[in-house]
Each structure stands twice: as structure tokens, then as C-alpha cells.
Amino acid sequence: MNYYFSEELNDIRELCSEIAEKYIIPVRAQLDVENRFPAEIIRVMAESDLCGIYIPEAYGGSAEVFGGGSLALCVATEELSKACGGIAVSYAANALGAMPILLSGSEEQKQKYLPQLASGEKLAAFALTEPEAGSDAGGVKTRAGREGDFYVLNGTKQWITNGGEAQIYTVIAQTDPSRGARGLSAFIVEDGTPGFSYGKKEDKMGIRASSTRELIFEDCRVPAENLVSREGYGFIVAMKTLDRSRPGVAAQAVGIAQGAFEAAAKYASERVQFGRRIDSFQGIQFMLADMATQIEAARALVYATARMIDAGERKFEKESAMAKVFASDTAMRVTTDAVQIMGGYGYMREYPVEKMMRDAKITQIYEGTNQIQRSVIASAVIKETASGGGR
User: How would you class 15 by CB atoms within 10 Å of its CB: exposed for 0-12, middle for 13-18, buried for 19 or more?
Assistant: First the structure.
């Protein structure tokens, strides 16, 4: 479909396509096997000015050029994900880590940190999940106690994308455990801060080119000026961040699905059985038709949600959840069907769809499981119905 992108958005897509072709595709299988972070490719993206497309010009970015930056970030993430979901999420997670500062940080925090992230000089990560706190953000146990001009953090964060590779972390911690989710606060913690260290690097099923690690805080003293917003607003900061980042996960899912679809369609056009190309069989044709339709529908939902955000809509929680659910479910279906179309070849690591199927699964899990997203959607629908159906 033609989405009538601006020249700038088309340029972003073409640039990411070139980076994928030249730098990602030749090494994606190797990085997957080695579970290795794509530092060199991230550097190429930074040098190509891709790291600041969602950050305003006042802080070294170029969001205004793209009408706000949310759609641009989705377009870039989708195109990179067609080649490798793991490398794409390493790029997109930088935006996730920066978003709390961009949305809720003080002017001083924005001036200090955002230009470094926009240039790609430094990477960011977002630290919410813990061993006992995933979908239930109120279960966060990491504690932050005020001591003079510092907050002292103690606790462990788990499964943090870009963990160990990022230099700037936005961390959600409890400042008043008696208040549950209302006692959470958000902090900026820099790599190298005494008391801040990294645990094991996870050995994952998919997105293996990305780094996923534990963050460990042991009497980690963080300057009070690194508190984002104010005490007790950490849950709000986190939710505002995730509402804006979920279309990015959805774009990753669309890209993975598109990559798998293209590989399967190409294979079907070349594979001969019973004296005929297999794309001449109706069974295969119907699978390809469903795959193409599902991808296009998911893409339309993702782009529409990103445009809502760029237009300054105040409420888009439901739409972000819808985009994430539909696109990630589509990615799982499409990659599974791609493997099926390619048969034994699809199951082999020599072909990319096996990896794409593994990469697709996480999009149904992180940044809020799809079961949680359906609860969010249902809650919004019920509220809208009770209020007469308006937004």
C-alpha cells in the first residue's frame, strides 16, 4: 500500500534498507550464533544520524523534520527488522531508554543526556522488570532511599535490553513501598556509578544479537538531581513511556513478518514439486495471500497509531496496545507459515526464517505481554462504552 510518506520518511526507509543490505544481512546469522551485540552496526546507524530521529532539534535530534518522530522511528525499526529483529531492537531500545527523559525529564536532564543519545555517542536502556515484577509493575522491589543529596539504590533488574552496552539507564525503583505502584520513582543512572554492576548475559531463544542482562544495585548512590519528574511518579513515567514505545515493538513485528514473507514467497516461486512451482498450488497461494493481508493490516494499524502520537493526541493507550497485539500475533503466524512453506529448508539455520520465527516470539512478550495488552484494550473499550462511545 502507498502511505504517501514525505520525502524525508522515504529517505529514512531507503537508508535503513541500505544499512540492512550492506551491514546486517551478511553477519546476522553469525551474531545470532555468537549471541553478540552489534556494536559496529549501531555505530554505522549513529553515523547515519538515525539515533536522533525521535528527539527534538533543541536537543540535537531531528524529530521535527519527520513530523514528530514516532512514525519515523517505526519506519526505521520496521525496515531494520526485516533483516534482523535482534539488531533492530538494539537500535529501538535506545529510544525506549531515552523516552522517560524526553517525556518527563527536567530541562537540565534533557540538555545533559538527550544530545548524547541523539548523536549515538551513548546508548540508553529502560529498567523496569525484576524477578518478581513484570506485568505487575507495582511488584518492583528495588529500593531507592534518600540520603542527603543522593538516593541510594539497592536491588536487581532483570532482562534489560541493551544491558551492559548502554551508558545511560532509566531505572524504576521504590521510594515508598507502603504506597505500592504510587510509591515508584524514576532515576537516571549512568554506567560506572559506584555500586552499579551487571549480572549474567542471558542466553535467549531469539533476538540473540541484542544484549539482555541483569542490572545489580548495591548501595548505588545516585545524585538527587537524577530523579525524573518527582517522587511517586515513576509508575506514570513508565506507563507514558511504554504507551509511546509499543508501536515500535509492533513495527519490529511487522518488519520480521515482512522479511519472513518475502523469503517464503521467493522460495515458493523457485521450488518445484510434482513438476510445478509450489506457488502454483492453491494451498500455498492461500497461505501467501493470508500472510500478505495480515502484514498489511498490521502495518496500517502501526502507522495510524504512530501518526496519532505525532499529531499530539493525548490518549492513545488503547491504540498502542492494539498495534502491539495485532502486529506481534501476525509476526508469529507469518513466520510459522513461512517455515511451513519452506518445509525442511525452513527448519534449517541455513535459511533465515528459522531465526525470524524465534525472533518473532518475543514481540508477544516484552513491553507488556499480549494478555496484558488485551486487558488494556478491554478496559478502554468498556470505559468508552460507559461514557457513550466517545474518545
Answer: middle
Domains of the chain and CATH, by start: 7-123 (1.10.540.10), 125-233 (2.40.110.10), 235-386 (1.20.140.10)
DSSP, res 58: G
Each residue of 1-51: pLDDT tens digit?
899 999 999 999 999 999 999 999 999 999 999 999 999 999 999 999 999
- What does the DSSP assignment read for 78-128? HHHHHH-HHHHHHHHHHHHHHHHHHHH--HHHHHHHHHHHHTTSS-EEEE-
CA distances from 220 to 130, 151, 178, 223 (A): 17, 8, 22, 10
Cell reading at 196: 552499579
Active site residues: 367
Closest by CA position to 244, among listed 67, 65, 92, 56? 92
Number of neighbouring beta carbons within 10 Å of residue 137: 20
Number of H helices, E strands in the chain: 11, 10
Strands (E), 202-325: 212-223, 227-228, 272-273, 276-277
* pTM confidence score: 0.96
